[in-house]
Amino acid sequence: MNFLSGGPIHKFLRGWAIFPFKRTPHYWHPVHRSDGKAFRSVCGIESKINEFAPPLGPGNFPLCKKCKRTAPAITPKEKMTFVEQER
Ligand SMILES: [Zn+2]
Which DSSP string corresponds to the chain? Predict the structure, then answer.
């Protein structure tokens, strides 16, 4: 089976997404830091994004099992995010 991510999400706020250099979609919440925009996944990973490396839609990649336990379920919209998304 081929896994396909969604397109880049340029105005990512929170939700399921694949962050740069990762292959698993996690559920991300924003955290406020002085040095830029950072996010923390439900399973505890902290990661930063910028305009050159936006997160990608989860596509059909298997979701992080740890996040899945407590994060909101993925919406059909998130699953098929091939365009910009704001929520
Ligand atoms: Zn996770």
Answer: -------B-TT--SEEEBPTT--S-EEEEEEEETTEEEEEETTS-EEE-BTTB--B--TTSPPPHHHHHHSPPPPHHHHT--S----
